Amino acid sequence: MVPFALATIPLVASIILINTFLFPGATDTIVSIGPLAPTWTGLTAAAQATLRVLAFALSVAVFSLTTPTDDLLTDLERRGVGRRAVFVIGAAIGMVPRLVERAGEIVDSQRARGLDTEGARWRRVRGVVPLAAPMISSALTEVEERTLALEARAFSAPPRRTTMRPLPDDSQQRALRWGLLVFVVVAVAASVSGALGIP
Amino acid sequence: MSASTPAPRLSLRDVSYGYVGTSANVLQGIDLELAEGRIVGVVGPNEAGKSTLCLVAAGLAPLAIGGRLDGTVEQDGVDTRTLSAGDLGQRVGILFQNPVTQLSGTSVTVYEEIAFGPRNLGLPLGEVATRVEWAADLVGVRDLLPRDPARLSGGQAQLVALGSVLALRPGTLVLDEPTSQLDPLGTRLVGDALADLAAETGTAILMVEHKTDLLARMADEVVVLVDGKIAKSGPAAEVLADPALPALGVEPPSDVRLRAALAEAGISFDASWGPAWGVQAAVGARE
Fold first, then answer.
1. pTM of this prediction?
2. Where in chain B is the domain with CATH 3.40.50.300?
C-alpha cells in the first residue's frame, strides 16, 4: 500500500502548490509573504483534488494487493473474455520483471565496456539512452519467434480454453460485489444530482 | 524400423518457398520423407534455408507467416495448407533455438506451461492433467512441475518447451537447432529425450542441428542443405563421413575427424578397436 501512496507524492505536491498559490480569481488570502499569496479557496480545491488522486491510487492498490495476476486471468477467461485479450494482459504483466532483469544485464554489459552509469545524475540520465535501444529491439525480435511458438501450440484453435481451476467464490463475496456496484451507482447519482454538496 | 507404414508421417514433394516481400525462393525443389519413428538430421551452412525448411515442414509457413509455397507438404497424407491452426498443432510440433521465447510467459508454474497447448484445444480437465504428466515424464521434468518457468536453466527450459509441444501429441516433431543454446549436459538431456520419444512413441523427427556428434548418435538419415536445395542425403553415418562437409561449414563428428587425423598421420584404422567409436557403434545398434 505504501509504494502506491508514495507514487502519488509528486502529483499531490504539484496539485497543492499550484492550487494554493495560483488559484485564479481567489482573493481570500491566508497570509501574504512578499509576492506569495496562498488562498483558502485554492487550499480547499487542492484538498479535493488530492482526495481524488489518492482514492484513485488506493483503488489500484487494493486491486493489485488482493488479486493475484493468475486469478484475474483465470476469471477473465472463465467469463468468456477472448484468449488473445487474456494473453495480452497476462504477457504485459509478466513482462515487467523480465524487462527489469534484461535492463540489468544490458547495464552490466555496457558498464563493462566503459559506460558511466553511476555518479552525477545527468550522466546517469544520459546512460539510459544507449539502454533503451537494445532493450526495445531485443523485445521486438523475440515477438516473432514467440508468435510462431504459440501458434504451433494451437493458440488459434477455435474451442474455448479449458479452465484449470475453479476460483473460490462464495455468497458473501458475491453479495459484497453487488453491494459495491449498487453503492457506486448511488454515489455517482447523488454526486451528479448535487445531493452530496461537492462542487 | 517401421518401413511398412503406408503413408509417411511427413512428406515434402518438390517444395519451393519464398518469404513475403521477396521474389527469390529460399527453398527449391525439396523432396523429403519421414516415416514413423525415424529421425532425420539436417545440416548445412548459414543461410542455407534450414530454419525455413523447419517452418515449412511444420506447416507454419505459409499458415502463420504467409509467403509462397509450391509443391506439397503433407502430414499423415493431409496437405498442411488445408489444416487449421488447431489441427496442425496436433499433427506436428516445432521447437526453436531459444528456450525463453518458446514459453508462453503467462504461466506461473511449469505445470500450467505444459498445459497451455492442451487447454487451447479445449480438452476436458482430466485429459489435460493426463497429458501434462505424460509429457513431463517423457522429457524428465516431473520434478520441475511446481517451479516458475522463468526461473529455469537453459537446458531445463528447453526440456519444458519440448514437453509443452509434446503435450499436443504431435506425430511429427520439427526441431530447429534445439540444443544450440545448451551446455553439454543440457544437450545430452534433450538428445536422450528425443531418442526415447522416437523409439517409444513412433514420433517422426526432423532435426536441424550443428552438433554432428549428436546427429551421429541419434539420426537415421542426414540431409545436407545448401542454398535451399538438398545437396546430399542418405544414411547418417555415410553423409556425416563425407569429406566435402567441412567446406560447407559443417564440422564432421569427432570420430570422423579422428579417423581423418589418423589417416593423415599414416596410422591405419582397425575396425576391431571396439565399440567406443561413436557412429559405427550407435548406427549398428539401431539397425
1. 0.76
2. 10-241
